[in-house]
Amino acid sequence: MAPCQYAAVQLDFAAREVTIKLVYYGPALSGKTTNLVALHRQAGTDARGRLMTLETQDDRTLFFDLLPLTFRAKDGDVSLRIKLFTVPGQPVHSATRKLVLQGADGVALIADSQLSATQRNAESFFDLRQNLKDNGLELGKMPLVIQFNKRDLPDIRTEEELERLATRGKEPVFSAIATRGAGTVETFLGLLQLTWQTLDRTHQLSRRMSLDGEELIEGAARQLGATVPVRELLARNLGLPEPGPRGAP
Ligand SMILES: Nc1nc2c(ncn2[C@@H]2O[C@H](COP(=O)(O)OP(=O)(O)OP(=O)(O)O)[C@@H](O)[C@H]2O)c(=O)[nH]1
Ligand SMILES: [Mg+2]
């Protein structure tokens, strides 16, 4: 039987497989590729596929990166396949970003915590909104988490400011030091959970694949080396977001 195609998520009932596309978006040099490198390192060998990156000499992504991840549930009976992409952040690559966003089920905005990057983060957020719109997707309906990366650098936005942003907006906010793999698993699982919940509401994934979504995410967390329950892991994000309007980070 051919896989059953929905707007983006793919359900293959015969193979008992769900395939989801997630995209890491953000300004140039914010650490998107570094997040994927960390996740690749953190994932068990069973879970991770080959990390494909295409960079120029100076760390700039030219087209996109792709990390395929496969999480198994119900003793291997069901597979959750993730295609995790990054976009190239440089302004000149807007057309590529639009292409990579096609069929995205969820997006993480990887922001740079440095004060000097505030404007570039905001521009990237508006660029994301426009590129989603051009793909017929609506930012307000897209599962979205925000990561403030590079927390190890001087002259960064304060924790209090990030907390304020987290409570003001409706999307979960995570802090990270991607070069050390800190906050990378939390960000990914936060996005995966939000995306799963959204898809479950629209496509009844859990019922149709007869599986427990929470168990699935817990399994994914274990395969990413998490040693505490997902609830505890995600409680480390900044502030509990209240429903509210979406503003630029
Ligand atoms: N100090 C510090 N440097 C970081 C961190 N994360 C990434 N970097 C560095 O920032 C630079 C850019 O990181 P990349 O991951 O290539 O950035 P990108 O977002 O993929 O950039 P584009 O592909 O151009 O969009 C690299 O030199 C990384 O080592 C971090 O948490 N702390
Ligand atoms: Mg990159």
Descriptive report:
- Strand 7, helix 4 (159-168) and strand 8 (173-175) form a beta-alpha-beta unit.
- Helices cover 35% and strands 19% of the residues.
- By secondary structure, it is α/β, with parallel strands linked by helices.
- The protein starts with a strand and ends in a 15-residue tail after the last helix.
- The longest helix is centred in the C-terminal third of the chain and has 20 residues, at 184-203.
- Strands 1, 2, 3, 4, 5, 6, 7 and 8 form an eight-stranded mixed sheet that branches.
- Mean pLDDT is 90; it is low at 1-6 and 239-244.
- It has one domain (4-234): P-loop containing nucleotide triphosphate hydrolases (Rossmann fold).
- Guanosine-5'-triphosphate binds at residues 26, 28-34, 59-61, 86, 88-90, 149-150, 152-153, 177-179.
- Residues 32-33, 61, 86 line the site of magnesium ion.
Précis, in short:
The chain has 249 residues and is of the alpha/beta class.
CATH H level, superfamily name: P-loop containing nucleotide triphosphate hydrolases
- CATH topology label: Rossmann fold
Radius of gyration: 17 Å
Architecture per CATH nomenclature, i.e. the level-2 architecture: 3-Layer(aba) Sandwich
- Helical element count? 8
Question: What is the H/E order?
Answer: EEEHEEHEHEHEHHHH
Structural class: alpha/beta
Mean pLDDT level:
90
Whole-Å distance between the termini?
44 Å
Q: Main β-sheet: number of strands, strand sense, barrel status?
A: 8 strands, mixed
Low-confidence stretches: 1-6, 239-244
User: Compounds present?
Assistant: guanosine-5'-triphosphate, magnesium ion
Q: What does the oligomeric state look like here? A: single chain
Q: Fraction of residues in helices?
A: 25-40%
How many DSSP-defined strands? 8
